[in-house]
Amino acid sequence: MIVIGAALFLCGLVMLISPGTVYQFTESWKNNRDGEPSDLYKLTTRIEGGILLIVGIVLLVMRFSG
Fold first, then answer.
1. For 65, which DSSP code?
2. Which of 39, 50, 56 has the alpha carbon at shortest distance from 17?
3. Which residues, including other chains, have CB under 8 Å from residue 4's CB and lie 6 or more apart?
4. Which residue of 3, 56, 57, 58 is most buried, as measured by CB atoms within 10 A?
5. Which sequence spans correspond to the domains of the chain?
6. Are 42 and 19 in contact (CB under 8 A)?
7. What is the pTM of this model?
8. pLDDT tens-digit profile of 11-28?
């Protein structure tokens, strides 16, 4: 459980801080142009990152609290 919580925390942190990096690793190969991700993509990636971050923190706190 601690490994899953830590992985979710780290993934969420990266998604929240740098959605452009997530785009480069996951979606850029689908684009023929060397474009940047849209503002909507950045927003949804940050929201998803925040959710993963919270879930990761909850799992880590549950593990260490009891």
1. H
2. 50
3. 59
4. 56
5. 2-27+36-65
6. yes
7. 0.85
8. 999 999 999 999 999 988
